[in-house]
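Whether sequence alone determines local backbone shape is best considered at the level of individual chains. For completeness, the protein is quoted in full, as a sequence line and a line of structure tokens:
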Amino acid sequence: MRIFSSNIEAKLVDFVNTTRGSAEDYYAMHFRLSKLTESYKSDFQIKIAVNILNELFREEQGDILRADNLDIFLLYKGNDRNLVNKAIFQLRYLFFDDPLATTPDGKENKEFCEIYDINFQWQGFSVLANKIMTESIQKAIGKSDFLEQMPVISAKSLVDLEKEIEETRLDKSIRKQSICTIRDIKSPKPLFHEIYINIPSLQSQMKSNFKITGNKWLFLYITQKLDEKVIETISVNPEQFLYMPISLNLNLSTVLSPDFTEFSEIAKDFKCQIFIELSVTDIFSDISTFFKVRDICQKREHKICLDGLNNDAFIQVSRKNLGFDMAKLQWNADMKSDLELKNENRLLKEAIDNCGANRLILCRCDDIHAIEYGHALGINLFQGRYPDRILYPHNKIIN
């Protein structure tokens, strides 16, 4: 039995992926110790709980995961249900006087521990594991960029806004940005272009009072409509866009749409390699749909690129288990100091090695420091304004 107290979100998702389709004799136990009263939340008592489980399952195959919020997960391969019941009994006894373990009338509190027989309850545990991962990713990424408090949009206003977007010409707002290999800082070599809509440019063309990025749910809804517009624009003018490999940042639902199927056939006719960029929060919000999208893309020979990752989030995802082809790591000026922090640097380098440095794109590279940072970590793929300025020194449009 192995004990882990870090990166447990990724280990839960790994367990879900490992048992997918072959879950016989697997159990998962979730001890909700985060709900204990404060007097029982001492590090000493939590360690005792972990030690009890470790002693009981010493000869068994599995993992004990201690979460930051003090919850404990025990992932166990075996068919001894009596051992499972014994574990619950002993931990309940450890916290006997706490209402989480025993109700005031002396009965066992069912909230104390949830048991999952994975052979029959894989779906339920998958939902839990991916919910925990999603919350962790969102926390790692930080606060949303959508901070402005905007008025609630009415149904009529939404219809009007949707109509306005439909009628807006995208040629002024559509952008291309190169993903490059950079070995010599003065000589970036483009591998493919990301095609996307510049939101400020689009907003400037619209008459609506609603700021597209001012409301999170409005923005998510609008991006689905913009996905359709981008795909339509490329499909109508394939010669303009499909002369070299491209990437598109899309919603999961877009990849499942008939419009995307039609676009995919056009790209195939042009022998154009397509990279589909998917938001990490979108993926973990609906992991089953992601797997469906991934399988469709693989069948059509499109590549999957994970987007929206900072250092903390990147460390938590596994290319082996999710099956993506590439990932984008977001550069910011604070990252440079991480190279001087041994633990953070070690964890990041391990994650890069596991992903494969040749599959990782350092994006938002606005200055030479980003390139130097990437090179120090073995990264050679870059995207951002700095390589743009070298490739297109006379371009007046800022991506």
User: Anything to note?
Assistant: Confidence is low (pLDDT under 50) at residues 143-150. The chain is about 45% helix and 20% strand.
